[in-house]
Input
Amino acid sequence: MALSLPRPHRVDVQISVASVLAGLAWWALGLTMQTDRPLGSTWALIPLLVLAGLELLRRSRPRTALIIATLALIADQFTAGNLATVMMFTDIMYAAVVYGTPASARRIPVTTGLITVAVTIGFLAWLREPEAILIGVLTGLVSFAPATTGVLVRTHREAAVAARLRAEQTALLAEMDRVQAITAERARMARELHDMVANHLSAIAIHSTAALSLDDPKTTRDALAVIRENSVEGLSEMRRLIGILRDSSDDREPTVAPTLHGLGSLIDNAGTNGLDVTLDDTRGPDDSKLPAPVELAAYRIIQESLTNALKHASPGPVTVTLTQRRRALEVRVTSPYGSPSGPRAPGSGAGLVGMRERTELLGGAFESGPESSSSPDGEKVWSVHATLPVAPSDLDPIDEGVTE
Output
């Protein structure tokens, strides 16, 4: 199999051609670096051409190029020498550190440093003249200096690459955070829109169906009154939500979120829509202070449970129970479970998903489904049970005995 070499870089080709032309010019002018060598100046062309060829491999085969270049430089010491040969060797030494493996980049500077020290000490011991130090300096300029320069350049390049990677990772993480924030906000708005509007639209759908199916003027008037009331309230809720979406300035007054103090109005509205709702609030006066997210989640869970009862429950009592535990608020809504006798509104299942999401966002537990035991009169009961944790740090500092 023939050995295929990679195509040399354009800059490497330019370096090789320029070095050969400079070396031939010095050779034609009779400029040599050494005298009294066994081989004449013509023999110096061989290392020159070898180094010029190795320049083409300085990026693709830096280690091989350095080994052969070292042997060629040693051979050049037996000729009259050429300055271009030495200059190309320093460039190949530099390239071996910059483009070589990380191990080579670590070993070459150490090796050339030791060689420089050894040559200096060896020639001092042999010649016993101060001028021998110049030989060590020349050795360092040819080998150690380009190697250390390559280390500096490689370090700066690696730092630049690492900085670019960190910037790309930071941008990627920022984009992921942005997408997650948008997704979370869309989910939150979807829950709010469903919980605010579904109750009113369900009542409108059921009472309009009753008005169309029963030929009774009084029933029709009552249904239209309920439809109008729910339409007005639904429009008010929609305007509030649209106002939140459109106005994002900081100087606007914050929109008041529904709290458990509004349960009475919610229960009354459910009664107007035809539900027999009973509120069993076992909390004491000291249990009324809850974090706003807990109150909003509890209100929306009760609202959606009443909406589901309106759409799917059988005739019978609906019970809403609030119980304050030491570290959590328990919300339970029970309703008759069976086939409704009157018209029903279609459901999509988004309400249960929204209630579960609200509970999980607070770190609580949510359960819904038919209870294992039936009611005393033999009817099945559908139960929605949510446990909403209340962190002590979220409560009023006075309750915890902390003063500011």
